[in-house]
Write a structure and sequence with these properties.
263 residues, alpha/beta, 18% strand, globular
Length: 263
């Protein structure tokens, strides 16, 4: 490995948000590479993503089968991979989610044909030391000509997405970098557990350019960080590294009565 490769900082949306939320979490995960705890909701989300990827990819590849058949096949294949990790209730909820997705998205067949890519990987340099990479759940070209980047969300709360467009702007930046002739972008979070609600925004080229600057600034801060201090919040309950983070344990246990032990 040459010096240039050694110094290359690889960023993604998740890595950057980990640093923004808690520098200690970033350090545990990406510098120290400690084992991560697996939460049930991770498998739930991965299963739904796999089903929808299978479904749309079939039609991108020219499937002529009815939508319900393809979706049923996608569900069965996903259960082979995740069935033993999910409860009976989880499986039923996933079935209900994809059934509702099917009903909502197949009323207009053009919605399916507008999809041009699923689970698209990207990687491009922000600077000579920073590489930005990731994967886009779904890309479609809307009837008005906009390139529409979509991210599925299986979270039960919508609060954390309020005015948080970084993920979708990152995807727009990736596609604009790949093809600068594309200048009209919109992004949507699809809340699969909230009646498939779309949280949508059209992005200007100025917003997309500013996103590149943000990653440059975040990358510089990460490179300069030395202490990686924890930032305890209620989200510590869902952190893979709570057991090794004293500040997180102290925060979670602050309301526990003497004699009780949570961690």
């Amino acid at each position: 490995m040459n010096d240039q490769e050694h110094k290359l900082l690889k960023l993604s949306v998740s890595k950057t948000k980990a640093f923004i939320d808690c520098a200690a979490k970033y350090n545990y995960s990406y510098n120290l590479k400690l084992p991560q705890k697996t939460f049930k909701f991770f498998d739930f989300g991965k299963c739904v993503h796999q089903i929808l990827e299978h479904f749309h990819l079939a039609y991108i590849n020219g499937s002529l089968l009815p939508f319900n058949i393809e979706m049923n096949d996608a569900y069965k294949d996903a259960m082979k991979d995740f069935g033993d990790k999910l409860s009976k209730e989880d499986k039923q909820e996933i079935y209900d989610i994809i059934d509702q997705y099917l009903q909502k998205t197949t009323k207009d067949k053009q919605v399916i044909s507008n999809v041009i890519a699923v689970e698209k990987n990207f990687a491009f340099p922000i600077s000579d030391r920073i590489l930005l990479n990731g994967m886009i759940d779904k890309i479609q070209k809307d009837n008005d000509g906009y390139i529409h980047v979509i991210d599925y969300k299986t979270s039960k709360s919508k609060k954390y997405l309020k005015n948080d467009w970084l993920q979708l702007l990152t995807y727009a930046l990736a596609l604009h970098t790949e093809d600068p002739s594309q200048t009209r972008f919109r992004g949507s979070y699809v809340m699969l557990r909230h009646n498939h609600e779309f949280i949508t925004k059209d992005f200007s080229l100025d917003e997309i350019a500013a996103t590149k600057t943000k990653y440059y600034d975040y990358g510089k801060k990460i490179e300069e960080e030395r202490l990686f201090r924890p930032n305890p919040t209620p989200l510590c309950n869902y952190c893979s590294f709570l057991e090794v983070c004293q500040a997180g344990k102290d925060f979670i246990n602050k309301d526990i009565k003497i004699g009780q032990v949570e961690w």
